[in-house]
Amino acid sequence: MEEKEYGFIKEGKVFRKAFLDYTDKEIGEVKETEEAAMLYYTERFALAQAKVNEVEEKINATENKGSYLMKVLHLKETLHDFDAIGDFESLYQKLNLLEEQLNSFIQQNRLKNLEIKTALLAELEEAVKSSEWKSATAEVKEVQRRWIKTGAVDDAEKERIEGTFKTLLDGFFERRAAFYADLEKMMKEKEANYQDFLEEAKKIKEIESYSVLVEKIRTLKEEWKDLGRIKADVRTDFWNQFQTIIKGALAKAKKDGKAKVNTGNKKENLESRSAFLKELAVLNESITPNANVKSLREQWKNLGPVGRVEMNELQAEFLFLTDQIAEKQFIESLLHKKLKGKQNEADKERLRLKIIYDLLNRDKNELSTFQENLDKFNTSSGLDKLIGGKLELQERKVKVKEEILRQFKAGA
Predict the structure, then answer these.
(1) Is the pTM of this model over 0.70?
(2) What's the CA gap between 212 and 206, in Å, rounded?
(3) Taking Cα atoms as reference points, which of 362, 287, 296 lies closest to residue 332?
(4) If you average pLDDT over every residue of the chain, what do you get?
(5) Packed helices 88-127 and 34-61: angle between N→C axes, nearest 10 degrees
(6) How far is residue 318 from each of residues 273, 296, 360, measured CA to CA in Å?
(7) Which of 87, 126, 193, 230 is the most buried (most CB within 10 A)?
């Protein structure tokens, strides 16, 4: 029988000697000579050493050392079954040392993780108090992302800290879900208000007076603004229905108005136009009138015929008022471009006056030049009417700006 320090041969069988808590183990048999068999299993021990050295090198080369604990434990459980002869006890000593080092490293990491997660819990407790759901959700999800990225804590603390985090998280999302459920319910209820509004709006098709219809439409548009918040796509659909109702009513009123042109009551038309001018006068009292001049002109055109003398007077007043409204809107656009949101109200008033002064002086100069050159025009070819119209327009432009300047000064 051949016997060495870590193994022996008995009755043609190769044995590894007992070490630590492991008994003698048969690992093979003699196939040629005893010396060859012992040499074969002794050389195989290098493979066992390589397995241990490899995991040790990997542990030393990485920052995430804790991930190798299971590998070390697996080697401890299986290495004694490896068919080889050698100093297995020294390999187990190394594995025990590695296990001890890894447990220490993991414990330190878990203490660090506990500090991080305790801080994250404090952040979460503040974040979940907010009812600004959009910003709060973003904040909560950021804390959640960092929580997941942070490693495990000690088992003694795990249930407490993970449970607290889950409770806070679940509570927040439950409250958020309840809020949006209530909001959805409220929006559904408000949709009924929109539906009622449309039913009421449909009645405008019965209004015969175009000016009354326009005023009613303006009132309805103001009411629309107060109907409340609903889903954007649903509100758009209701708005499109509302616009269809308006267009239909206006088209009907125009058609009915044209049908009455020849038989219409000029007295009523005169009253309608006079009332319309009063509305324009009120609108024009504002330094920044909010109106669509093109729409105003369209409404004026469809109000119905009156006598020629009356129409000339009304038309002159209409042009004077709408020109003022249009000019004020133009001045306001220039004002915003020059201000760029930097000046206060006093600066704004001074700049507004400067703009109207500049525009008025420009028109006065153009009128003066035009008047000086009147004698030079050849009116024999029928241009006198055209020139007269140009002169009248230029004079009206000056009068319009003079009136606006008067209003600006009075307002200032």
Answers:
(1) no
(2) 11
(3) 287
(4) 85
(5) 20
(6) 9, 10, 21
(7) 230
Angle at which helix 155-201 crosses helix 88-127, to 10 degrees, equals 30
The answer to whether the beta carbons of residues 146 and 120 sit under 8 Å apart is yes
Lowest mean pLDDT among 107-111, 231-235, 320-324, 341-345: 341-345
DSSP string covering 163-188? HHHHHHHHHHHHHHHHHHHHHHHHHH
Q: Among 3-7, 202-206, 274-278, 375-379, which range has the highest average pLDDT?
A: 274-278
Contact call for residues 357 and 412 (beta carbons, < 8 A): no
CA distance 362 to 240: 44
Cα dist. 347→22, 155, 335, 339, 412 in Å?
97, 69, 10, 9, 12
The shares of helix, strand and coil residues in the chain, as percent rounded to the nearest 5, are 75, 5, 20
Q: What is the mean pLDDT of residues 163-176?
A: 92
Which residues face 35 on adjacent strands? none
Amino acid at 68: Y
Cα separation, 322 vs 293, in Å, equals: 7
118 by DSSP, 3-state: which? helix
The alpha-carbon radius of gyration of the chain (Å, integer) is 47
Q: For residue range 33-74, list pLDDT tens digits in order.
A: 999 999 999 999 999 999 999 999 999 998 888 888 899 999
Cα–Cα distance, 90 to 163 (Å, whole number): 44
Residue type, 56: E
Which is nearest to 29 in space by CA: 40, 43, 17, 44?
Answer: 40
Say which DSSP state 341 is in.
T
DSSP state of 203: G
Q: Give the total residue count for the chain.
A: 412
Taking the C-alpha atoms of residue 284 and residue 326, their distance in angstroms, rounded to an integer, is 10
Distance CA 89, CA 95 (A): 10
Q: Which residues contact 47 (CB under 8 A, 6 or more apart)?
A: 82, 84
Could you tell me if residue 11 is left (phi over 0), alpha (psi between -120 and 50 degrees) or otherwise beta?
left
| Integer angstrom CA distances of residue 217 from 88, 247, 254, 298, 363 | 97, 10, 15, 15, 37
